[in-house]
Amino acid sequence: MSDRGKLRIVTLCTGNAARSVMAGALLVRLAAEVRLDVRTAGTHVVEGQPMSRRTRDALAAAGARADGHRSHQVTDEDLVGADLVVALAGEHVAYVRRVHPGAADRTGTLKRLCRDLPPAPGPLAQRVGALRLDAVELEPWEDVPDPAGGEDADYLACVLELERLTAELARRLGLGAGPASAAVPA
């Protein structure tokens, strides 16, 4: 846990405009009673941009919000204090391995974490360390499709998939939220 006694999670996508924003907002909503610090960031960001109407509407449909969100390029500072970096695609894990290697052992795709992270109890650092995320081979099934440039339906499909996945991750983290997922990709 971070020095503030909160579990610190960074959600990471490309532009920090859709997937990472949605995943972060959904985790916050699921863990409202837990000491959780969620930050969202991207690997290739135009800094300071607001989320799109489509992202905002998709979040609203899922009962979540990210008021005041502005896009943010991931930095060493974001990652140094993170207990877990939740990437939305293999390319984001590869970016962390290349640019921020000190965080690679705590960076995995959301789908891999939902499939492989042993459920709580037990210290998160030990459970994450056992996954050897810095060396695991990245596979195509791990990507959450990017709705960028798509229609409203694409954003809604993305938030619905992320809602299911974040509920499973919250359960595995021991946040007391979310039912077990019946169909996490193998």
Q: Averaging pLDDT over every residue, what do you get?
A: 91
Assign a percent range to the helix content.
Answer: 25-40%
Query: What is the N-to-C succession of helices and strands?
Result: EHEHHEHEHHH
Tell me the domain tally. Answer: 1
Radius of gyration: 15 Å
- CATH structural architecture: 3-Layer(aba) Sandwich
Number of helical regions:
7
Uncertain ranges: 178-186
Itemize the secondary structure elements and their pairings:
Blueprint: E1 7-13, H1 19-30, E2 36-42, H2 53-61, H3 76-80, E3 84-87, H4 90-99, E4 107-109, H5 110-116, H6 124-129, H7 152-173
Helix pairs in contact: 1-7, 2-7, 5-7
Describe the 3D structure:
With 186 residues, the protein is an alpha/beta fold. The chain has helices at 19-30, 53-61, 76-80, 90-99, 110-116, 124-129, 152-173; strands at 7-13, 36-42, 84-87, 107-109. It has a single domain (7-173), classed as Rossmann fold (3-Layer(aba) Sandwich). The chain has a four-stranded parallel beta sheet, with helices on both faces. Helix 1 (19-30) packs across helix 7, helix 2 (53-61) crosses helix 7 (152-173) and helix 5 (110-116) packs parallel to helix 7. The longest helix has 22 residues, at 152-173. The chain is globular. Residues 178-186 have low confidence and may be disordered.
